[in-house]
Structures are given as C-alpha cells and as structure tokens.
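[retry 2/3] O-methyltransferase C-terminal domain-containing protein: previous attempt timed out, resubmitting with same input.
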Amino acid sequence: MTRDRKHAFLDTLLAAQRLAFAPFIFKAVSAALHTGFLEAVARHSGGTAESYAEALEIPPYAAAVMADILAAADVLTRSPEGTLSTTPVADCLLFDEMTRANFFFADDVNYVGLDKTLEALLEARPAGLAAFNPEWKTIYPHLPELPERARRAWFGFDHFHSDRAYEAALDVLASVNPAWRTLVDIGGNTGRFTKAFLDRFPESSAYFVDLPVETEALLAREEIVPYAARIRTISIDWLTDSELEGTAGADLYWMSQFLDCFSESEAKTILERTRRAMRDGAALAVLEPLVDEQRHKAAELSLAASSLYFTVMANGRSRFFNGPALRKLFCEAGLRIVSEHPNLGISHTLFLLEKA
Ligand SMILES: C[S@@+](CC[C@H](N)C(=O)[O-])C[C@H]1O[C@@H](n2cnc3c(N)ncnc32)[C@H](O)[C@@H]1O
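[retry 2/3] O-methyltransferase C-terminal domain-containing protein: success.
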C-alpha cells in the first residue's frame, strides 16, 4: 500500500516535471529534428551520441545534451553501454503527419509569441504577434507575409486538419443533394475546398469569399487557374459591418475552420449576416473540430492547446469551440440544425443548417 502510494506519487512528480521542463524538452526535440540527430538514431540505431555527432558533423557536446534529454523524456532509449535507439514517440515525431504538423506549427509559428501568453489572455489581444511584426493587429491579412518556415508550418497545420475532413464532408453533402449548383465558400483561404467541391459537382460554380489579400491572390494560384471560369470572388472584412452581398440564388453556404477565427459575439453576427444573405431553402454547412467531442485524448489535447494560438497569435479572442457553445450560437443567430455528422477526417463535426 505504502509502496503503491510512493509509486503513484513518483509518477505524478514525473508528470509535473514534464510540464515544468516542457519548453526544454520541446526545444531539444526541435534541435534533434533540425540537426538530423533523431533521424540518424532511427535509421542506424545502436550508435553512441559521439558516433552520431561525428557522422552528422555536429559538436559532440550538442549530441550528448540532446541524448540526455531525449532519453529522459522517453524519445530515445539508452543502454547501459550508452548506445541509443528510438522509441515509438520518436517514430511519431519523425513519421506521423499529425504530430509533425502540430510540432512545426508550435515551433515555427507560435513558440516565440507564446512568451506573451499572459498579456494576450488578460488584454484579449494577440500580443505574441509582435514576434513577427509589432504593427500587425491580427494574423489573417498577413499570412502571405509570414517568414517562409512559419508560412509553411501555418499552412501545413491548417491543411492537415481540414483536408482530412473535406472528402468525408463532400460525401455527406453529395448524399443530401447530388446536384448542388452554387457554393459560397466563406473564409475559403487558398481555395482548396472550393476546388474539391467543383471537382465533386461538375455542374456547379462557386463564390469565394475572403479578405482581399486572399480573393486577389486566388485566381492566379496555379491549382485554381483551371477552375477560374467557374469561380467569382467576393472580398469582405467581417469585422466591419459589411453585409454579404452578391450571392443571391446560391444553394450552399460553407464555412470550414472559419468561425473559430472569431469571438463568440463576432461569430454570431457573421452567422446572422450569412442567414440574411441566404435565400429560402438554401443550406449552410459548418465544419469545425469540437474540443469536448473528440474520441481520443490526443485530439482533445491538440485542439485545446491550439486554442492558445488564437489567443496569442491570431486575434486574442477566439478558440476552438465546445459543442454546446457552437450549437447555442447557431440557435441565437436564427439557424436550425438539420443534421450533425461527427468524426469526419480526424476530429471534425459537420453541421448542416437552414434558416429557422
Ligand atoms: C483558418 S482559415 C480557414 C481556411 C479554410 N476554410 C479551411 O478549411 O482550412 C480562416 C480564413 O478566414 C479568413 N478570415 C479571417 N478573418 C477574416 C475577416 N475578418 N474577414 C474575412 N475573412 C477572414 C482568413 O483570411 C482565412 O482564409
């Protein structure tokens, strides 16, 4: 009994130290990925820190420090003779697409800015964005200006999480109506969903709605050029009072990973303005990952932690939704849920809505 309690306490103490030293472990992993140290151990296990240092032409000191931290953090195992091999956690860091999208998003987009978490939380402004440019008010109009590594990590993260759900969402849409005519892709970003929709419904056309920085770039994108004749762009900044105009007659409005870019009150007015733009009988489809409705703890943790990106880097006031809060917003905005489709892709729920 006493022994069990002592072990339970030591496990708890270890879990707490993982948190206390989380940035140290994180940056050691980052260095091990960037130097190729982790990959070298994975490909040629059984070497010593020194032998990898020699092969990679990095200082033996660097390899020794990384080996100590990674072995203690269960990313590597080390034999009594000092030979190294990787654990399944290292395999995730090297080969699992989700882990890598999340890791590089954390490292290249957020890490420096996260230092301003307290200010951002208390002042409801993305205080960490100053790490890129002190003049920027939100991240969205500046996505094309991010430094190359940050831009790659931002799109890698965004695309990984939404692309997985697109095909499944298109299946649901096709089962509800095999012949959608006109899509309104709100917050369409680089046009990936618009393109997938136009492929799936060959008779359809699309309105692509976003900030000018995205609408002006869209039709020149190489992958979008073949679809240009079927797409019209509409520029809007939803943070002004603008109404959504020019989409009369459309039968499907679509918002994917979009409402989470806004505070609840902003999201509500966006939904209301969208409802006003919808003709009777039109559908609104909303695709969002819901923090509290995940099947796996790994997904819940990823989403909950990612919310801090919205706080510190993106806008200072939004987060990934919990299910009840989003359903309440729909209702308050005068929309009725027709059906819900959870667990699309890895972690998304698709809501099909109509005017109440
Ligand atoms: C996270 S991205 C979503 C991209 C895409 N829909 C997806 O599924 O991955 C959010 C999009 O909302 C747009 N956005 C953010 N703030 C906006 C605003 N105030 N007005 C209009 N669009 C905005 C951004 O430009 C971006 O394209």
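[retry 2/3] O-methyltransferase C-terminal domain-containing protein: The chain has two domains: 2-95, 101-355.
[retry 2/3] clearing retry counter.
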